[in-house]
Amino acid sequence: MCARREGTGSGNVSPVTDDELRDAASLLESARYSLVDPDEAKFGFYREYLDHNEPGLAFECLVRGADAQRAPRVVWEMLSQAAELMELGEEEFPHGPFVRVVVEHLRA
């Protein structure tokens, strides 16, 4: 699950950096513990995905959980920042539908 972006001027495509993925994982953790009900059982495989370097799948678990419990805006902002760092877009497969949920909550 390595997102790619345009290189600078050379037409090269470069992967999201390890630092960006670490920052995204940190934002996911912050979002996770900002939820009203951080019960582990309600977040499926979130921890396992994060521990196995699958932040996109961990993002999906958090979006589902946050949506189910009507999370505060700060959670949606952190999820949005994490998606941006991982370069997950609204049209990107398979994470796009989850990015759209985040965008919809931020527009509300």
Can you tell me about this structure?
The chain is mainly alpha-helical. It has one domain. The chain has helices at 18-33, 46-51, 55-68, 73-85, 96-107, and strands at 4-6, 13-15. The protein has a two-stranded antiparallel sheet. The longest helix has 16 residues, at 18-33. The radius of gyration is 14 Å and the shape is globular. The relative contact order is 0.17.
The shape, in one word, is globular
Class based on secondary structure composition and strand pairing: mainly alpha
Placed side by side, the strands forming the largest sheet appear as: 1-2
Q: Biggest β-sheet, characterized?
A: 2 strands, antiparallel
Spans of at least 5 consecutive residues whose pLDDT stays below 50 are 1-12
Number of helices: 5
Brief description of this entry?
The protein has 108 residues and is mainly alpha-helical. The protein has helices at residues 18-33, 46-51, 55-68, 73-85, 96-107; strands spanning 4-6, 13-15.
